[in-house]
Amino acid sequence: MKISLRMFVVAASLAVAAPLYAQGGGGGGGGGRGPMTPEQQMAQVTRNKDLMFKDITLTPAQSAKADTVFMDAMKKQADARAAMQPGGDMTAMRDANAKMTTDRNAALKAILKTDADKAKFDANVAAMPAGRGRGGL
After folding, report:
1. pTM more than 0.85
2. In this model, does residue 61 exceed pLDDT 90?
3. Range of 26's domain?
């Protein structure tokens, strides 16, 4: 009887714990993601740059400037996330992120010289999946 009760308790504990573990629950929010490595940051910069500057030819100087804008924006957002207290105002955080994204996109667009490139940039940003160029890094 004691063994059956113990086995039942263990099985019940696993039944509760397994879904929580699978969903990344139990720690610090963000779906269990920690800070990105420099390699992950550069991969994300490259993906976003490819999407935002699709069919736009950048000079090496423009490309380097775009990389700097992306990396600065990522640092600002990471600093803002770190400064936010657990259980803080998520609406304020979303608003701050949206402003940072708008500022980043304006800085990226300012790199471009021609009106045609700027119009293409706007179209590319509008075509991006939500949460990327339009609302997040």
Report:
1. no
2. yes
3. 1-34
